[in-house]
Amino acid sequence: MDREQLEAGARNILLTNLRRGVADWNGKEYSFVCPSLTGYPFQWFWDSCFHAIALIHLDQEQAKAEMRTLMSGALPDGFIPHIIFWEMEKQPDFLSRNIVGQTSPFYSSTMQPPIIAYTVERIYQATGDESFREEALPVLTAFYRWVRRVRDPDNDGLIAVIQPEEAGTDCSPKYDEILGLEELSNQGFIAALRKVYEAYEPMRGDDARILAADIFHVEDVLVNSIYAMGLRSLSRLLGSSPEAEEFSQEADKVRDALLSKCWDEEAGAFFDLSGVAEKPVKVVTISSLMPLILEDLPRPIVERLVDQWVTDPQHFWTPYPLPSVPASDPKFMPGNPRGFIWRGPSWVNTNWFLSHALRRHGYTDLADTIVARSHECIEKSGFREYYHPYTAEGLGARDFGWSTLILDM
Ligand code: GLC
Asked: Which of 71, 168, 241, 251 is 20 to 30 Å from 121 by CA-CA measure?
């Protein structure tokens, strides 16, 4: 597939998955790309950011519309939900299974990895549209302040998630023990998640109490790496001002905490911290590599991650890298996991993050190979949700939005 064919394929998906209208429940206009018409018919936070990044290459007005729609979902306290059910009437089945809408039937009361400021920065860089930047800034500053105020109760810089979907890596094996997963399947995962939500029931929407209850309290490495990246973007978008300084210092604080609290020198990997007691979760997954997206990660750590994990065929260097779980893990499930996701297959969004990260750290060949293999997956199997790391077989949802990130790789 050459660039033109790839763009045509991506355009086709982004247009097919485009949802436009006026919501009955809040009277607001929406215009966004849903991840997949069949599996994920609503607006998801980080998917939306990825769609907008792909759209920069195809239709910059639509990229702005995607972000405007997402930002229009912000609540007065700054919070932006991880799912907004714009066309809720169209999917009664999906909604009856939804357990994350704790305070409203129209949106979830959970977050997703805070990449939004980076996305807005990219759109601003591509278009130079000052009014778009100015309109976005109050929403972004309120959102990142919400994240810090509500999700970092111990004020160490690291923010905590209250359930696995908030990290975007839903069924990752790193959460098995915390969730007390009894059955290793998607059903088992949903049952465990339901238990978490039952326990949250009396504390509905009160994140401070939920975090203090210490039921699922994870300072997640992937989430915090993306948080630091978002803070840097926000600081740059703000130009030189006290606010820019505020967010830049916060980004330093997150980076320092990742290094001092999550880096395990013996294992050579970054680990999440579980609970108020901050117990390291010593399971290596794709998250353990995510601090590579920080441009100022110390060089010895970059080299250790690359040499020990990324390029080792026993771990992440499979024929179609980078698997979500290293091949060496006994729980590695490379094939169709029947909805039990993030346990082996390779995903385009993490390849997008890590190919750019590796390139910035000087690993041009590695980055090129990741891009070429991601491209091959799409060529062989279409724009799928994730791919078999040995065969490039396409798995999960079809016509999946964020695999169009290939245009930005
Ligand atoms: C799954 C993924 C999550 C994504 C959502 C919509 O839940 O784990 O990261 O945002 O699907 O695509």
From this structure: 168
Domain that holds residue 355: 298-409
Examine the domain organization and report whether 314 and 279 are in the same domain: no
Tokens standing for 356? 């750019």
- Any idea which residue has 């964020």 for tokens? 402
Instruction: Give the span between the Cα atoms of 271 and 227, in whole angstroms.
Output: 16
How much is the mean pLDDT over the chain?
Answer: 96
Mark whether 304 and 353 lie in a shared domain: yes
Chosen domain end from 296, 329, 350: 296
Report the domain count for the chain: 2
Binding pocket residue ranges, ligand 1, CB within 6 Å: 35, 40, 44, 46-47, 165, 168, 170, 341
One-letter amino acid identity for 294?
Answer: L
- CA pair distance 96, 58, nearest whole angstrom: 35
Whether 371 has a pLDDT exceeding 70, the answer reads yes
Tell me the per-residue pLDDT of 245-276, one tens digit each, with 9 for 90 and over: 999 999 999 999 999 999 999 999 999 999 99
Q: Which of 165, 169, 348, 404 to mutate to test the pocket of ligand 1 (most atoms within 8 A of CB)?
A: 165
Which of 42, 47, 166, 350 should be mutated for ligand 1, with most atoms under 8 A from CB?
47
